Amino acid sequence: MGAVTGYRTSRGVAVLGLVAALVVTLACAVGPRTPGEQAPAPAPAPSSGEPVDGSGTVEEFERDITGAVRLAELYWEQRFTESGQRFEAVGRVLAYSRTGEIACGRQEIPRNNAAYCPAGDFIAYDVNWAVTVFRQIGDAFIFFLLGHEYAHAIQARLGIEHQFTIQSELQADCMAGAYIGDSVQDRQLDLKDGDLDEFRAGLVAVGDDPDQPWFAEGSHGTPEQRIDSFFRGYDRSYTACDLT
Length: 244
Prior knowledge:
With 244 residues, this protein is an alpha+beta fold. 41% of the residues lie in helices and 11% in strands. The chain has helices at 58-82, 127-136, 139-158, 165-185, 195-205, 223-236, and strands spanning 3-4, 7-8, 51-52, 56-57, 92-96, 103-104, 107-108, 114-117, 122-126. Helix 1 (58-82) runs parallel beside helix 3 (139-158), helix 3 (139-158) crosses helix 4 and helix 5 (195-205) runs antiparallel to helix 6 (223-236). The longest helix is centred in the N-terminal third of the chain and has 25 residues, at 58-82. The radius of gyration is 17 Å and the shape is globular.
């Protein structure tokens, strides 16, 4: 993964081969906050200067998070402007480190996860898990993770509703693909040789188990469905994602 409108990631090649231990449910939109409930506070970031697997630092991780969020903001702001709509960026991106540290309404956001909360208009991610993934995988995962979560925020802004969780999740995969693919086309983001195969391998790793019912709450789609959705957006832009 390379340059992002003046932002450059710390490493030239991003490896996205997820191991089974890191397979998690991504981007669950959880319930609304109870009226009067206090907004969540961000968790403390990891200590500065900590080496990451001998190839990066926590500062580099934080720059990748910032760059991925900023690129998503720029991308969707342009899409909204083109359609004559007012764009509002996601309010906050919060790090947490323990289950229960951040909640969306009455539902706690668990460890080893990331989520968009529509009620509080924030994205939250488990910082310890994310740094571990960054250390073992690279920055490509961070761009996909933030792109997928930001897609849920765009769904909320457009008033898109689905009958089943899997519909929302596959659409978010498509939207993440569009944001990455269009950013590459616009030369705001550079992909290195092999990165597309690495995205494909990562999507296989985060696909649902074969025995997961497609209609179950929390279903995200089979590996094949997630790959198809991501690359449909990557190849054909956001118009292929049924944003109506």
